[in-house]
Amino acid sequence: MVRGALVALLVLEPDIDVVAEVAFGTGILPAAMEHRPDVAVIDIDLPGKDGLTAAAELHEQLPNCRTLILTSLGRPGTLRRALAAKVGGFLLKDAPPDKLASAIRDVSIGRRVVDSDLALAAWDTADCPLTGREIEVLRMAADGANAVDIASRLYLSAGTVRNYLTTAVTKLNARNRVDAIRIAKESGWL
Could you give the CA distance from residue 130 to residue 172 in angstroms, rounded to a whole number? Predict the structure, then answer.
């Protein structure tokens, strides 16, 4: 419903053509490869593959396609992850429609667009203490995978996976794995 409303609003803009829409993160790269858009407007929280992963893939495989991330997750850590994925813009979903259209225009010509309140919050927030591997293992645990499943997917031993989880719990000063996942999600690191 939200995607349909955004498409309906953007179709009203005389200089913006919507060439495709997809419901799942896994459909973003194939649709972009087929239609070659100037800008991909991507929700950060998608089934199948999250928007930041899809944006990073687009940046790598279709570098002329710029990305604008829409999110309801206005967290500094999420913004930092988006910038690390080389997105062109990061906008909150509750922004006014004219701000979205303007952001698409700016991103299409190579300007960076970032919600100003979120940018200030990110500036004042500490960096993520976790390594990339610790985040990856914690993300898989958050999706319900156990240590053996994670080990199998990442070609590690189950003991190594448990060590990564323990280190993440310690670094985040969490009570346990579930608490570490909560802290990392609230901080925008997952």
Answer: 8
Edge to edge, what strands does the sheet with 66-71 contain?
Answer: 39-43, 66-71, 89-92, 113-114
How distant, in Å, are the alpha carbons of 44, 142, 161, 182, 185 from that of 167?
Answer: 27, 16, 10, 15, 17
Q: Find tokens 């500094």 and name the residue.
A: 76
Please name which of 57, 61, 54 lies closest in space to residue 26, comparing C-alpha atoms: 54
Residue 120's pLDDT band (cuts 50, 70, 90): low
CA angle 57, 130, 115 (to 5 degrees): 55
For the entire predicted model, the pTM comes to 0.64
Q: Which residues, other chains included, contact 100 with Cβ-Cβ below 8 Å and sequence gap of 6+? A: 6, 9, 10, 41, 70, 91
Helices of type H across 44-96: 51-61, 76-84
CA distance 136 to 133: 5
**Quick one: what percent of the chain has pLDDT higher than 90?**
51
Question: Which of residues 6 and 120 earns the better pLDDT score?
Answer: 6
Both tokens of residue 173? Answer: 């000063």
